[in-house]
């Protein structure tokens, strides 16, 4: 039994026909005593309630409050009214609590879930519902494809920097060190020490590539220090440009700075092209 039906059942005994066996000894259920107490308490506050409590024609127990006589269009509204007015002058908190406490708040959870599942299944089985769901799925899949393709296009425009078989020392500096550690002037012994901290094979015993990279860095640095100073400046400038081209690919710094906008614009372009096909 749900909240409203239980509440209605609780109220149904109020104001009903008199028991023809009145005067005989009966065993009264505690719930009936609670209901009588509720009516009595309300009557003490408003005598009209006590007078009307015995008149079934004047009180619809399913829709009328026994405390203030207010009538509602639906039993559920009565329950909400009692909860809202609890503790006011005409609605003593203890009596409302007794009344509402006798109501079974929830039905069987398993039964409720099963009933909802049946209703959902019946609803979703309708042809128009199936068609709308199908269209929503297709639109969702289409949007997901557009997002993934836009991301792929962005990544594909980035470069794929690779380390040459015989790299110069400046290129290795630009390849392995973050820009914050790039020197303003051509790299020196200090730069080599920073590079070696990253490539130190003893720190990467499980990866043989670091041993190879550290060896290449040593050879490249030895060749680097043998160059004239003006030659080092030229090589350093040239390798910085090469590193930037390898990293950015066909993108610009502007594209990187507004990548979220770029992705949205690219997604719109993809969706438009797809809709025209």
From TrEMBL:
Region (Disordered) residue spans: 9-30
User: Highest taxon of the source?
Assistant: Eukaryota
Protein name per its UniProtKB record: C2H2-type domain-containing protein
Query: What is the source species?
Result: Lipomyces starkeyi NRRL Y-11557
């Amino acid at each position: 039994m749900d909240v409203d039906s239980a509440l209605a059942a609780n109220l149904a005994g109020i104001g009903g026909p008199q028991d023809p066996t009145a005067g005989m000894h009966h065993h009264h259920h505690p719930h009936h005593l609670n209901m009588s107490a509720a009516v009595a308490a309300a009557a003490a506050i408003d005598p009209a309630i006590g007078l009307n409590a015995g008149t079934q024609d004047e009180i619809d127990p399913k829709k009328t409050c026994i405390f203030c006589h207010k009538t509602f269009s639906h039993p559920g509204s009565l329950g909400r009214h009692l909860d809202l007015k609890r503790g006011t002058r005409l609605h003593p908190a203890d009596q409302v609590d007794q009344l509402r406490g006798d109501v079974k708040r929830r039905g069987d959870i398993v039964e409720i879930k099963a009933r909802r599942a049946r209703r959902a299944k019946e609803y979703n089985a309708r042809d128009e519902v199936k068609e709308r769901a199908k269209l929503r799925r297709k639109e969702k899949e289409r949007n997901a494809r557009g997002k993934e393709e836009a991301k792929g296009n962005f990544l594909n425009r980035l470069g794929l920097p690779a380390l040459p078989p015989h790299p110069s020392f400046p290129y290795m500096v630009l390849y392995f060190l973050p820009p914050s550690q790039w020197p303003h002037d051509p790299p020196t012994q200090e730069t080599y020490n920073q590079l070696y901290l990253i490539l130190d094979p003893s720190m990467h015993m499980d990866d043989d590539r670091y041993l190879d990279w550290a060896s290449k860095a040593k050879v490249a640095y030895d060749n680097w220090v043998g160059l004239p100073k003006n030659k080092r400046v030229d090589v350093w400038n040239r390798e910085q440009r090469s590193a930037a081209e390898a990293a950015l690919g066909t993108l610009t710094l502007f594209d990187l700075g507004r990548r979220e906008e770029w992705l949205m614009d690219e997604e719109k372009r993809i969706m438009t092209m797809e809709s025209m096909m």
